[in-house]
Amino acid sequence: MRRVRAAVERRALPVLAAAVLALLVVMFYYPVATVFVDAVLVEGRLTLRVFAAILTDPFYLGELARLFAGDSPLAVLRALLSPDRRLGIVGFTAYQAALSTVVSVAVGVPLAYLLARYEFPGRRTVRSLTILPFVLPSIMVAVGFFAAFGADGTLNAALAAVGLGPVDLLPSLEAIVIAHAFYNAPLVARITTASWESVDASAVETARSLGAGPFRAFRDVVWPQVYPAVLMSAALTFVFTFGTFPIVLALGGFELATLEVFIYGLIRDLAYAEGAALALLELAISLTVLYGYLRYEAAHTVEAGGIRPQERRPLRPPSWSLRELLPRVGLAAYAVVALVLFCLPIASMVSASLSGPAGFTLEHYRFLLERQATGASFQVRPWPAVRNSLLFGAAALAVALPMGVVVSVLTTRDYAGRELVDTVAMAPLSVSSIVVGLGLLRGLVFGVELGGVRVAVGGALAIVAAHAVSGYPFVVRIVAPGLASLDRQLVESARALGAPRARALLDIELPLVWPAVVAGAAFAAAISIGEFSATAVLASGTGQYTMPIAIERFIGRRLGPATAMGVVLLVVTSGSFLLIDRFGGDRVGL
Question: Residue 12, exposed/middle/buried by CB under 10 A (0-12, 13-18, 19+)?
């Protein structure tokens, strides 16, 4: 029996790695490939004419299309520099992603500085909550932005109260950029805070003792250690906002459509070849940025051993000198902006769910209860949406968490090609959720022929697969840094005493990074509960709708019930992050 157990433990990790690879092929690579085949296989014939049409169409590539049409690079450059240049859909997508990245970094870095350098009551809770906006369902955030910045929203109500005219922010590029900052600034803060806290206080003190002022010490000692994290978070933000869909569709509409919105429109109109070609172009751009990010991250990972962190200063100034007051005045001004950006949309959604023409009301929640009790079978009812979201979330977690842990182990070992393995494993971050959903629909739900037998899976399993594919990369990004920072001598000692690699992982490594594993589980569950894009494709025409789908159905008819359902979704999603505050705390690092 012991020999069998030992043999199983010796082979456990390779078997698990093979199982993860098989799952990725079935749940991600094969479905995505079925979509991309449509770009080159038209009416049964291999062709690149769809790509050629896109690359030479100014509607998609703007002035760059002239380059593929045969114009000289100099003429294209002059056209790009002219005031009346055309960006095209791809150019506009990159433009809004770049703007969103700049604003997210501008908002996120001061928050990181506040959390890393100052001590105040509730700092740990604030840090735990910094990543919460990133996993809030996009459709719920859209409802919050409508409630806050719409024609009858909170902002215009406040302006009317002081005698100012209304502001029309919806639809607009400004609203899209602000919403993206709501999502991604906390992610920037999360990544940058960890880097700021790893700055060696001894190096700063040495610089000051040699005559460097505070600004020069920051420029020469602190910033060189912080800016790699800022660049890495900016790269991630660009990838996420380049492939954005629900936020742009809700707050910008087709007037400000990005690549993702056009892909969705083409797929909805059954123009699979053109939609697949656009999706492949989007993937190439996003995967290039993601690969650069992973290479940069690997090259700039700093071991934290032996570092003495800088002490946090009290937020309350010890004296009323100008030197003490200036940074705190700046932080106070930032806090006002941050409260408006992060709190106003959510507070407005909650307020709208409790407001009616006559003031305070529970009518919107009563509507949900009545719809549950008397709604027709074809109508969206609240309880099935909540139940489906929780069931899909639990099932997706059961798949995504083991996958993420195994991939974390594989990507924290030194071997040739590790960056390529990391890029392949993280590819779901770069692929449109709509493409994943469509691939699962056409490749698995519709079925495939295997040996003359048609094999198909149910829509529920396809939704779980889509959610697991969306969630497991975040488990990797949380767990892998913890595994990489462990003392390798612990594992080597266990191996020297005869422990197989899998036993060393279970008995030594995972217990030491357990807070990160719990945080990764919370991420996977929250992302599943809030996933919208792939679910919208897979749940169409079925009764397997989730809370985000229910919100989208309600918002098309009445804002009040949509805000009430949004509050329910907020409570359910936020509950998973109590795990981070309870078990993860400051040790959790995405």
Answer: middle
Query: What's the token pair of residue 17?
Result: 């790695």
C-alpha to C-alpha distance for 383 and 369, rounded to whole angstroms? 9
Angle at Cα 167 formed by Cα 180 and Cα 149, nearest 5°? 40
377-590 shares the fold of 88-353 = yes
pLDDT band at 293 (very low <50, low <70, confident <90, very high): confident
Give the C-alpha distances (Å, rounded to integers) separating 230 from 97, 236, 255, 324, 586. 16, 10, 32, 26, 19
User: How would DSSP label each residue in 147-167?
Assistant: HHHSTTSHHHHHHHHTTPPP-
Locate the domains of the chain by residue range.
88-353, 377-590
**At 134, which amino acid appears?**
F
Please choose, from the candidates 341, 412, 42, the residue with its C-alpha nearest in 3D space to the C-alpha of residue 178. Answer: 341
| 401 contact partners, CB below 8 Å, separation of at least 6 | 472, 475, 517, 520, 521, 524
Q: What angle do CA 469, 472, 478 make, to 5 degrees?
A: 155
Please check the confidence at residue 28 and state whether its pLDDT lies above 60: yes
Residue 453 DSSP code: E
Q: Assign domain 377-590 to its CATH superfamily.
A: MetI-like (1.10.3720.10)
Give the residue among 432, 388, 394 at the shortest CA–CA distance from 539.
388
Q: What is the pLDDT of residues 159-188, one digit of tens each?
A: 888 888 788 788 888 889 999 998 888 888
Above 80 in pLDDT, residue 12?
A: no
Query: What count of other Cβ atoms lies within 10 Å of the Cβ of residue 310?
Result: 19
Report the C-alpha gap between 113 and 423 in whole angstroms.
Answer: 30
Q: Which residue has the tokens 């990160």?
A: 516
pLDDT at 459: 78
- In this prediction, residue 357 carries a pLDDT of 80
Q: Which of 400, 437, 430 is nearest to 549 (CA)?
A: 437
- What's domain 88-353's architecture? Orthogonal Bundle (1.10)
Neighbours of 409 (CB within 10 A): 21
Its pTM stands at: 0.80
Separation of alpha carbons 502 and 428, rounded Å = 26
Strands (E), 339-385: 355-356, 359-360
